[in-house]
Amino acid sequence: MGDSQYSFSLTTFSPSGKLVQIEHALTAVGSGQTSLGIKAANGVVIATEKKLPSILVDESSVQKIQTLTPNIGVVYSGMGPDFRVLVRKSWKQAEQYHRLYKEPIPVTQLVREIAAVMQEFTQSGGVRPFGVSLLVAGFDDNGPQLYQVDPSGSYFSWKASAMGKNVSNAKTFLEKRYTDDMELDDAVHTSILTLKEGFEGQISGKNIEIGIIGADKQFRVLTPAEIEDYLAEVE
Amino acid sequence: MSRGSGGGYDRHITIFSPEGRLFQVEYAFKAVKASGITSIGVRGKDSVCVVTQKKVPDKLLDQTSVTHLFPITKYLGLLATGMTADARTLVQQARNEAAEFRFKYGYEMPVDVLAKWIADKSQVYTQHAYMRPLGVVSMVLGIDDEYGPRLYKCDPAGHFFGHKATSAGLKEQEAINFLEKKMKNDPAFTYEETVQTAISALQSVLQEDFKANEIEVGVVRQENPVFRVLSTEEIDEHLTAISERD
Description:
The structure holds two protein chains of two kinds.
Chain A: H1 20-30, E1 35-40, E2 43-49, E3 66-69, E4 72-78, H2 80-101, H3 107-120, E5 132-140, E6 143-149, E7 155-157, E8 160-163, H4 167-177, H5 184-197, E9 208-213, E10 220-221, H6 224-234
Antiparallel strand pairs in A: 1-2, 1-8, 2-9, 3-4, 4-5, 5-6, 6-7, 9-10
Chain B: H1 23-34, E1 38-43, E2 47-53, E3 69-71, E4 77-82, H2 84-105, H3 111-127, E5 136-144, E6 148-154, E7 160-162, E8 165-169, H4 172-182, H5 191-206, E9 215-221, E10 224-229, H6 232-245
Antiparallel strand pairs in B: 1-2, 1-8, 2-9, 3-4, 4-5, 5-6, 6-7, 9-10
Helix pairs in contact in B: 4-5, 5-6
Domain Proteasome alpha-type subunits (chain A): 6-28
InterPro entries (chain A): Ntn_hydrolases_N (IPR029055), Proteasome_alpha (IPR050115), Proteasome_alpha-type (IPR023332), Proteasome_asu_N (IPR000426), Proteasome_sua/b (IPR001353)
Protein name (chain A): Proteasome subunit alpha type
């Protein structure tokens, strides 16, 4: 990884023991569009703002929430191009696991591998850390799971979490509203309300994206029409 | 001594600044503007048109060799705005990639796949210190089998989006403002309207009327999905139509 000219790490310790490049990467994440995830009793929902730079952009050509395997989905806050790289690597990791074990990759294993890649880029020569935090939502034999992975490569399992510009308000909102026995539908409504909290402008099916996975273990991204239905219920 | 700023190298290679920015990427965007050229792309109902200025700085230059419009395959075109040398290397690699795709998979590389490839390559340059980002914004156009006419724009940061209309270069923001007004109600432009919207946008934003040899125009049409660069005669026809319309 990296050219031989740069076989030294660009991410190095400061005198106070901090890895400043990672901190800066987290700052980049913090200026990204808000995203969040909620783990319900019978599924997981992840959602994000989808604010595009101009009305001239064809919003159907952009999909921020990606499917990593049929039962695992992911959303990000931060730098879109970096996200694409991680998604591509994850697809390959999932496929390699399946080829070896003849089984779909468990959520924890995939999260661990993505995190390992992100950590590599904080230590290898000639590269910078990824400027994204990820929320990975999946449903496997261990039930519904939600993981957050940071640029440092550290990951935690969450009941509900948020990232990006509006992270503190969103997390406060989620802390108040979260209950352990939430159903998936309630979680979708709560995620919409949370996004609405910090939303500039009129929220609609075209400027947010929502992905859900239920007991059917099929991750899918909701269509704008379906989002509009949920929005109407929330009003 | 506090090393909060990464040793001052955050402006020289693509590492994060304390605010979480990549200065080299931002400077690459400035390099695109420094070329002094503005480009416009418009997607119609069944065609896509891209227009760019053709500035030949020296009378002794061979005009035919000055171009920013490149066919990548018979069906895909690329308009490169910014540093010409960076553009040429990108075009060379894109042509290779598209040819390999056709060979490996047995069908023509679709527009969005090419755009994604360019964008992913640009992303690598933003993450690895050994290569600087390219000072080019690429507009890729073609007719997709499923989705019809398609226009994508890829930038030095590795972003790419599909566009109904877009612009790049020196007067990018003014052109986008102009186009937003024109495309507000999702008009479905015919081929002629598409070309004329693109050319008149450029004329309005630069506040000058062009002669046919001062601009380059590239099109793809659903009825004949090959990428074509218009001849000066064809450009003249459109220019005349625009001036008669006004």
